[in-house]
TrEMBL record:
One of its GO terms (molecular function) is oxidoreductase activity. PANTHER family: SHORT CHAIN DEHYDROGENASE, SHORT-CHAIN DEHYDROGENASE_REDUCTASE FAMILY PROTEIN. InterPro entries: NAD(P)-bd_dom_sf, Sc_DH/Rdtase_CS, SDR_fam, SDR_oxidoreductase. Keywords: Oxidoreductase. This is Short-chain dehydrogenase. CDD domains: 17beta-HSD-like_SDR_c. It comes from the Bacteria. Belongs to the short-chain dehydrogenases/reductases (SDR) family. The keyword Oxidoreductase applies. It comes from Catalinimonas alkaloidigena.
């Protein structure tokens, strides 16, 4: 029966997490438009919007903090479409604020979603990928996965962890024909990356000693947001599709222009040069 299903479902299938908005929703539409079967998952399927009406798209519940929903979404997706070719760990959010003002619960939640959630989805799909000796795991990181951003130390820490996990895991899985890849978007304003900086957020206490610094960084991020890549979402989802289909062993894809200078400095220059650049960006008060 399984073989018969496999034969009649020759289309590629992608499972995406976090498709209620942002990159996830746009990517689900893009893959569907290009003929893929799409398993569009999210915590609350009432937020699916027009995804339900698109051909080739199946909307289902997956909360990365709930192992049962992960297992069910994968099993039901395989039953429906015969196989899964690509899993995109897109679900995530940014916890912003001064570290000292963040509760331990806020810290735990940031890692539960951005790190442990991606790990749990990955673990759950691997038996299927191993059996097929094929598959691609695409983890949505950030420029903050290579660069530590002030007032985003938790977000950066979670994405640094996702990067290290992906880079180490790729060698294990390559031996079985399975690819692991990372997408590193910049600070796209459409994703709300900058919107919560300095704002009210659950589990964040305001410590007055930091207020001058917070104001300083808020101004810097305002300028960065204004200068960010206006086509960021389109570029990121195109990079997601490219990484899923190009057949390359390339690990990292950094598609937006706004983060390129910092990534270049981080990875291609000396530590003093990088420190000087980030000092000018985050510390210097000169115009």
């Amino acid at each position: 029966m399984h073989q018969h299903k496999h034969k009649i479902n020759m289309k590629n299938t992608v499972l995406l997490t976090g498709t209620s908005s942002g990159f996830g929703a746009t990517a689900a539409r893009l893959f569907a438009e290009r003929g893929w079967h799409v398993i569009a998952t999210m915590r609350d399927t009432s937020k699916a919007g027009d995804l339900r009406s698109l051909p080739n798209v199946w909307v289902t519940t997956l909360d990365v903090q709930d192992l049962t929903t992960i297992d069910d979404a994968i099993a039901d997706g395989i039953e429906r479409f015969g196989h899964i070719d690509v899993v995109i760990n897109n679900a995530g959010y940014g916890q912003f604020g001064i570290f000292e003002g963040l509760s331990r619960e806020a810290i735990q939640a940031q890692f539960d979603v951005n790190v442990f959630g991606a790990m749990d989805v990955t673990r759950a799909i691997l038996p299927h990928f191993r059996a097929r000796r094929a598959g691609t795991i695409l983890n949505i990181s950030s420029g903050a996965g290579a660069i530590g951003f002030p007032m985003a130390s938790l977000y950066s820490a979670s994405k640094f962890a996702l990067e290290g996990f992906s880079e180490g895991l790729r060698y294990e899985l390559a031996s079985l024909g399975i690819r692991v890849k990372l997408i590193e978007p910049g600070g796209a304003p459409q994703t709300g990356f900058m919107a919560r900086v300095g704002g009210e957020s659950a589990g964040v206490a305001v410590i007055e000693d930091y207020l001058p610094f917070m104001q300083h960084i808020g101004q810097i991020y305002g300028g960065m947001s204004a200068a960010s890549d206006p086509d960021a979402v389109e570029k990121v989802v195109e990079a997601m599709y490219e990484a899923a289909t190009d057949g390359k062993d390339q690990l990292r894809y950094a598609p937006t222009d706004d983060i390129q200078p910092l990534l270049q400095a981080r990875r291609s220059t000396s530590e003093p040069t990088y420190q000087s650049l980030t000092h000018q960006l985050f510390v210097s008060t000169e115009a």
